[in-house]
């Protein structure tokens, strides 16, 4: 059995991009490949003339691909050159990063798929209208923080970008209307810099929404609890009304 056949995870470190080279604006510096079919595709193209020790030198600035077994031990590392290079090219429509972004866009809520598809292509579209904040909370809450594929940066920032410009009263009302996945996303947003750096008057949250956020954080995201307790300010009265 070849050592590479034990591979269950591939970690990719992207190469630095020169200022004059085209690049994808949402491509992360590091990401992982866990899909079995994609791992098999990489292994089929893995260089056959690699050294027999457990490390193949990666040229400075070239980025690297590392294979890992189930126990977490690194098996091999190499620079993605030759047939491997297009597979890890962020701009190649058939490459792994493009596939990861396309899968993420296809899984977006119905009203957000066109917006997600534009972001996956590297554009910055205008925010879609008519999509409730509760739906966006659910989109953010569905993001798995680990492991991270080549679309994780989009998955993390795209919903936050849609929520950042909405008024606090609208967001607080959405907290009451969303489901458990949405509460996960709501806690992540309210604990994020996009909310915590708002003016204190714009951080006043009625008790109903505030209690829901704190309760969910206490049970499921205790690391966010201290930030929420400090930065979520109480509103004088719960006066939120549907617009």
List the helices and strands and how they pair.
Elements: E1 9-13, E2 30-33, H1 36-44, E3 64-68, E4 74-78, H2 84-87, H3 96-106, H4 113-121, H5 133-141, H6 152-164, H7 168-177, H8 180-190, H9 193-196, E5 204-205, H10 207-220, H11 225-231, E6 233-234
Parallel strand pairs: 5-6
Antiparallel strand pairs: 1-2, 1-3, 3-4
Helix pairs in contact: 3-4, 5-6, 5-8, 7-10, 8-10
What does this structure look like?
The structure is a single chain. The protein contains 11 helices and 6 strands. Strand 3 (64-68) and strand 4 form a beta hairpin. Helix 3 (96-106) runs antiparallel to helix 4 and helix 5 packs across helix 8 (180-190). By secondary structure, it is an alpha+beta fold.
Order of helices and strands: EEHEEHHHHHHHHEHHE
**Helix segment count?**
11
Which of globular, elongated, flat, extended, rod-shaped describes the shape?
Answer: elongated
Secondary structure category:
alpha+beta
Q: Roughly what percent helix?
A: 40-55%
The largest pleated sheet is described as:
4 strands, antiparallel
Mean pLDDT level: 88
Bin the strand percentage: 5-15%
Summarize the entry for a quick read:
42% of the residues lie in helices and 9% in strands.
Which descriptors apply to this entry?
9% strand, 243 residues, disordered C terminus, four-stranded antiparallel beta sheet, single chain, two-stranded parallel sheet, alpha+beta
């Amino acid at each position: 059995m070849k050592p590479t056949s034990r591979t269950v995870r591939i970690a990719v470190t992207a190469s630095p991009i020169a200022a004059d080279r085209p690049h994808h604006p949402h491509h992360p510096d590091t990401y992982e490949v866990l899909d079995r079919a994609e791992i098999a595709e990489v292994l089929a193209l893995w260089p056959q003339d690699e050294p027999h020790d457990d490390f193949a030198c990666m040229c400075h600035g070239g980025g690297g691909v590392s294979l890992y077994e189930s126990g977490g031990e690194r098996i091999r590392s190499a620079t993605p050159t030759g047939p491997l290079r297009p597979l890890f090219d962020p701009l190649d429509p058939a490459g792994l990063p493009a596939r990861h972004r396309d899968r993420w866009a296809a899984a977006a809520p119905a009203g957000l798929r066109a917006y997600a598809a534009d972001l996956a292509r590297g554009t910055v579209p205008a925010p879609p209208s008519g999509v409730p904040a509760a739906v966006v909370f659910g989109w953010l809450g569905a993001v798995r923080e680990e492991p991270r594929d080549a679309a994780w940066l989009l998955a993390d920032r795209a919903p936050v970008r849609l929520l950042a410009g909405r008024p606090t009263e609208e967001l607080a009302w959405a907290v009451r209307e969303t489901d458990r996945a949405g509460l996960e996303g709501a806690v992540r947003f309210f604990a994020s810099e996009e909310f915590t750096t708002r003016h204190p008057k714009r951080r006043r949250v009625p008790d109903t929404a505030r209690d829901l956020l704190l309760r969910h954080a206490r049970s499921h995201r205790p690391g966010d609890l201290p930030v929420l307790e400090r930065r979520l300010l109480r509103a004088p009265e719960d006066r939120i009304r549907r617009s």
